[in-house]
Amino acid sequence: MTETLVPFDEVLERYDPAFGLEVHVELNTNTKMFCGCPATFGGEPNSQVCPTCLGLPGSMPVVNAKAVESAIRIGLALNGSIAEWCRFARKNYFYPDMPKNFQTSQYDEPIVYDGYLDVEVEGETFRVEIERAHMEEDTGKTTHIGGATGRIHGADYSLVDYNRAGIPLIEIVTRPILGTGAKAPLVAKAYVAALREILLGLGVSDVRMDQGSMRCDVNLSLSPKGSDKLGTRTETKNVNSLRSVERAVRFEMSRHAGILDAGEAIFQETRHFHEDTGTTSAGRPKSDADDYRYFPEPDLVPVAPSREWVEELRATLPEPPAEKRARLQAEWGYSDLEMRDVWAAGALTLIEATVAEGASAQAARKWWMAELSRAANDRGVELAEVGVTPAQVAEVQKLVDGGSLTDKLARQVFEGLLAGEGSVAEIIDARGLAVVSDDGALGAAVDEAIDAQPAVAEKIRGGNQAAAGALIGAVMKATGGKADAKRVRELILEKLA
C-alpha cells in the first residue's frame, strides 16, 4: 500500500511532534558483559563464544566490573543520579540472535536515572531529559540470505553470528521530547551528536555508528495542534548515522500526518529505516514492557556502587563538551558562526586531532569544512566516515606550508585519498603533483608569459608590482598549477623591476 506523505511544513500547521530516543552504546571493554570472551569487532563468525554467552545449561554469568564503571561515568557525565542499589533482570523473548531466549538487562532498577543533556540548535537551547541509562548485553547478529530486502521475510535461510552476543551495552533512554516544533529533526540529530561527543571524551566506546557500536531507536508520535495528549508512537529501530536520525524523524512526521489526515489510526509498531531512500517500512507490532515478562536475574548479585567509588569516578570525568568548545574556539580564533558550523558538521573532534598533528586551526577548518565535507555530503556519510584521517590532512597541509604543494594540488591529493589511491606520498608520485620550483623550468615559463603580455610587463617595469598577478596566473596555467607561486613572483620582479 502506498502511504501518503504530508509536506513537512503542512505537518507543523496541524500537529505537534513528540519524540524520544533510545541510544544503545557498545562499551569498549576487553571482555563481554558476563563472561571472559573477547569483545572485539570483526572476528571470524562464532569464534568468540563460550558456554555462558551461548546460554548453555549450567553456565554462570559474572558481571564485568569495567562495564559497571563505564556506566557510572556515563551517568555522571549526563548529569544523572547513580543508584545506590540496582540489579539485573531477564527480558524474555524468543529470537535466534539471543541464544538464551532472554536478554540480561535492567528493568525497573537501572544504574542511572534522572539525567539531562542540553543541546543547541540554531541559537536555541533545548534540554533533553534522560529517564534512565541501564546496563545490558548485546544480541548476536543475524544475516538473512536470499530475498530482495535482506530481512527475514522472503529470505532463503539465515545465518547467526554469536560473537556480538554478550557485548556490554548501555541503553540511554530519554523522556518524551516536546515543544521542538519544526526543529524536531534537528534536535534529535543534535542530541545524538552531543551524546556521541560525550562518550568519545569519556573513552568508553568508539561510538562507530557505521559498525553498530552506537545505534539509535527513534520513537515518534504526533498530536493535534494544542493537544496535551500524546499520540500513538512508532519506533524506528537501529538508525545508524546522525543524518539518518534527522531523516527518520522527518519522514515519520510526514507519514504519521498522512495517516491521521485520512482519519485512520497509527499502528503501534517497530519500523525499519532504509538508508538509500530515507524512508521507513513496517517491522513488527511494538511490544510493551509487560510482554517481555521481566523478572529478577537469579544468577547475578545486585550492583551496589559505594558513594566513595562514585565520587572517585566523578573526578575522572573529562572537560564538559560545552566548556571544551568555548576553550577551543578561543584558542583557534574561530568566530561564533565558524564554531557553530564546525560543531553542526561533526568536525570538531576531527579538527582538534588535525591541529594536534601539527596543522593550524584555520587550515584544518578549511579542508574539513570544504573539500571533505563536500565529499561526505556527496556520499551520504558522516564526516568522520569519509575515509581521510586527521593525520593525512595535517600531512597535506605541511606540504602546502613547505611549498611542496599548492592548494590546487592539495585538492587533487585529497581526491586521491578519497578514491583510495594510497598514501599522500604515493598519490603525489603517481599523479605527478609536486610543485615545480626549479629556476630553469620556471624561468622559461616566466619568459614566455612576459613575451605574451608586453603591456603588463611595461606596467611592472613602471613600478606597478601588483600587475605581476596576471603573469603569475599565466605561469601557473602553463605549469598546470604546479609552479611555486612565490618563486614565480620573485623571478618576474627580478626580470622586470
UniProtKB/TrEMBL annotation:
EC nos: 6.3.5.-
Keywords for this protein: ATP-binding, Ligase, Nucleotide-binding, Protein biosynthesis
Any GO BP annotation: glutaminyl-tRNAGln biosynthesis via transamidation
Catalysed reaction, written as an equation: L-aspartyl-tRNA(Asn) + L-glutamine + ATP + H2O = L-asparaginyl-tRNA(Asn) + L-glutamate + ADP + phosphate + 2 H(+); L-glutamyl-tRNA(Gln) + L-glutamine + ATP + H2O = L-glutaminyl-tRNA(Gln) + L-glutamate + ADP + phosphate + H(+)
TM region(s), chain numbering: none
Broadest EC class assigned to this enzyme: ligase
InterPro entries assigned: Asn/Gln-tRNA_amidoTrfase_suB/E (IPR017959), Asn/Gln-tRNA_Trfase_suB/E_cat (IPR006075), Asn/Gln_amidotransferase (IPR018027), Asn/Gln_tRNA_amidoTrase-B-like (IPR003789), GatB (IPR004413), GatB_Yqey_C_2 (IPR023168), Gln-tRNA_amidoTrfase_suB_CS (IPR017958), Gln_synth/guanido_kin_cat_dom (IPR014746)
Domain Asn/Gln amidotransferase: 349-496
PROSITE patterns in the cross-refs: GATB
MF-aspect GO terms: asparaginyl-tRNA synthase (glutamine-hydrolyzing) activity; ATP binding; glutaminyl-tRNA synthase (glutamine-hydrolyzing) activity; transferase activity
Task of the protein: Allows the formation of correctly charged Asn-tRNA(Asn) or Gln-tRNA(Gln) through the transamidation of misacylated Asp-tRNA(Asn) or Glu-tRNA(Gln) in organisms which lack either or both of asparaginyl-tRNA or glutaminyl-tRNA synthetases. The reaction takes place in the presence of glutamine and ATP through an activated phospho-Asp-tRNA(Asn) or phospho-Glu-tRNA(Gln).
PANTHER family xrefs: GLUTAMYL-TRNA GLN AMIDOTRANSFERASE SUBUNIT B MITOCHONDRIAL AND PROKARYOTIC PET112-RELATED, GLUTAMYL-TRNA(GLN) AMIDOTRANSFERASE SUBUNIT B, MITOCHONDRIAL
Family the entry assigns: Belongs to the GatB/GatE family. GatB subfamily.
Assembly, per entry: Heterotrimer of A, B and C subunits.
Protein name: Aspartyl/glutamyl-tRNA(Asn/Gln) amidotransferase subunit B
The organism of origin for this protein: Nocardioides luteus
Lineage: Bacteria, Bacillati, Actinomycetota, Actinomycetes, Propionibacteriales
Gene: gatB
